[in-house]
Amino acid sequence: MKYICLAYEEESKLNSLTKGEWDMLRNETLSYVDELRRSGRLISAEPLQSVHNATTVRVRNGKIGVTDGPFAETKETLGGFFLIDAADLNEAIQIAAHWPSARLGSIEVRPIENSLRENGRYEGIRSTKL
After folding, report:
1. CA distances (Å), 87 to each of 1, 40, 42, 80, 95, in order?
2. Does 126 reside within a domain?
3. 4: number of Cβ within 10 Å
4. Using CB atoms within 10 A as the burial measure, which of 34, 39, 42, 123 is most buried?
5. How many CB atoms lie within 10 A of CB 78?
6. What is the pLDDT of residue 74?
7. Is residue 101 part of a domain?
8. CA neighbor of 105 nearest in space, from 25, 18, 34, 20
């Protein structure tokens, strides 16, 4: 099953790392990406530019609204994602738990839908967590 893992982080925490700390975190992340790729579990992984480069778009009553920055004001913002193929939620959680930046922020793990539901976007969905 496919899972999207959304990596949330505080830019200020990452910016406060020393060059040596950043190099260690970066190298550890790149090594983990290679390991997941070799095992066939990684489909894609991409970092995002700073939240300061984000633009939020909304359409209300046919009018387009554009706002600089993210939709929500939070300390942790979306810093990147990785798309994985895991046997089940437990394996996906284990993969996310080993992502190096999980020690500094958080990783949201969410199953990918096979298609857009006919009966409503989220209607009738039950949690499958243990």
Report:
1. 6, 12, 12, 22, 11
2. no
3. 16
4. 42
5. 16
6. 72
7. yes
8. 25
Task: Tell me the mean pLDDT per 10 residues along the chain, length 130.
Answer: 95 94 96 97 96 90 89 80 97 97 95 83 62
Nearest-CA neighbor of 56 among 76, 81, 83, 78?
A: 78
Q: Report the pLDDT value the prediction gives residue 70, as an integer from 0 to 100.
A: 67
**3-class secondary-structure state, position 103:** helix
Place of tokens 């909304």: 58
User: What's 80's domain CATH number?
Assistant: 3.30.70.1060
Contact 23, 90 (CB under 8 A): no
DSSP state of 94: H
